[in-house]
Amino acid sequence: MSTATQELPRTFGALRQGYFNREKYAGRSVKDELRNNLICKLQRGDALFPGILGYEDTVVPQVINAVLSRHNFILLGLRGQAKTRLIRMLTTLLDEVAPFIEGCEIHDNPYKPICRRCRDLLEAQGDETPIAWLDRNHRYVEKLATPDVTIADMIGDIDPIKAARRGQDISDELTVHYGLLPRANRGIFAINELPDLAGKIQVGLFNIMQEGDVQIKGYPVRLPLDLMLVFTANPEDYTARGKIITPLKDRIGSEIRTHYPAAVEQGIAITEQEAWLKRPSPVEVVVPGYIKEVVEQLAFAAREDKRIDKRSGVSQRLPISVLENVVSNAERRALRVKDDVAVPRMLDLYNALPAITGKLELEYEGELKGGDTVARELIRIAVGKVYDRYFEGANVAQIVQWFDLGGSLKLDENLDAATMARQLGGIQGLMEKTKGLGISSNEPDAVRAAAAEFVLEGLYSHRRISRNEERGFAAEEKKREPPREESGGKPERPVRRQFN
What we know:
Rossmann fold; 2 domains; five-stranded parallel sheet; elongated
């Protein structure tokens, strides 16, 4: 509760006489409240779901339609598509505070109580009935569906100890210990991974949604709960495996599909927003734009790769974790070699493999190659695509020729930026090409060296030069044509054999 609630009415009589009148709370449900507040935000032009990027023209309009329609809805999407984050932000559409009868486990509306205890209290005390106030953030309840969830967890159970203490019959409504659903009364109840919920629990859900009554240990209890129900699920579980019972599916008003970022630029914006890049450090961290593009392109390449399970997807957490690891490796190197500026290099991307392999669910072909090999190939593909955006059609003959003439370069991770820039500067034409990345000669050595290494990695990705762990960058080995046997200066014709 906020400090502002100290000035709010504290009795039912004061509530009725003040600004918080009967018209505001008596007949208005949670879905009406969400709808009314959403309409006000739309009229004012307020930002509805700040921080949710890439859904402005797709998912967000459908969520708005579901709320305006007063629907319970489900978000269907693969992992890492901000489903949970989106439903948690629905609380911004609730009133800042809401009154309830003080001490009530299910936050009963004083104008319209549904539990036996609150009805008796109102009848006995009338206008002196104490009122408390519920903050909007406490009107959201979330549950991760697991197979071990029971009816008692979701709906409630008979509490024999409560019955014994009060001297009541065990079938009395006052002996009920309420579960998560009743405790979410007058708020939003969210269930993540709905298909993992047992069938009998799903039956209890749609009975609450439709009829408003339940049976607890064989005793019927009338609970016309005031709720907005929202769910999340994986499309594969929801549609193909038949884990959702038909009556529940039929009662979900809107089915909304989420998706991964449609463009690399959207993905970069999401990753920049979520990744921990602005960190306290003794060195200045500078992340070049092309590094961010490569990291994001890596996720796009993984989602298209046939060796990776499409049903599992590639979470947006992959580029977030990779970028954090890349920055950390650059920071570690700068601290060790006493550089003032930490700039991620291509080498750091390969050191971020642990942030990649753990987030890829491989198909059989991928399992045969191994996660590490698949991840390295994805990096190569990503670098190649980003390189083409900056250098497609560029003349790199000088650089390639330097390696063809016997030049080779192995960049040690323990080198300071000045030494690395000096070594890279010895390759003819290389530093000039970094201008294509917007790098000038006045930039710090770490920035210039990282850009030059990216150019070399791009040439390697297109097989213009080679690279290995032992020799570093070197000339690409040319494939030789197999020698042909000759007779009299002409190729010998192969002997044809015919089998009868």
